[in-house]
Amino acid sequence: ACLGECPQGAITIEEKAAEEFDEEVAKLHLEGKKPTMEELPCGCPSATVARFERQAGAAPSVDTPQQPILRHWPVQLILVPPTAPYLQGADLVLAADCVPFAYAGFHQDFLKDHSLLVACPKLDDFQAHLKKL
């Protein structure tokens, strides 16, 4: 809040002799201040890169429940590292993350021999995705 007038003499400047700055000592001091992060023996399973091998076989009949064709994880664009092995030389399907829920034959119609990335065009950070792609 404003006092209405500046009080005189409220702040004074004092000059004192100080030791020469030692960058190494400062670095050592700051190292001791860093919080240590305990590494857990686990991690977020959805961020672990994985490949799934599917055995070739006869196409399922109409009465047989559809089998997923997805061959890798994760699929969310924000979680996939650009160095993921399943992206190297891959034919890529980039889909809105709601599509597999709305399109019953998504796996069978789009994922055979393709790698999948999903993102939300409405809610995700488009610029971050564009930079990653």
Automatic annotation (TrEMBL):
PANTHER family: IRON-SULFUR CLUSTER PROTEIN, IRON-SULFUR CLUSTER-BINDING PROTEIN-RELATED. This is 4Fe-4S ferredoxin-type domain-containing protein. The lineage of its organism: unclassified sequences, metagenomes, ecological metagenomes.
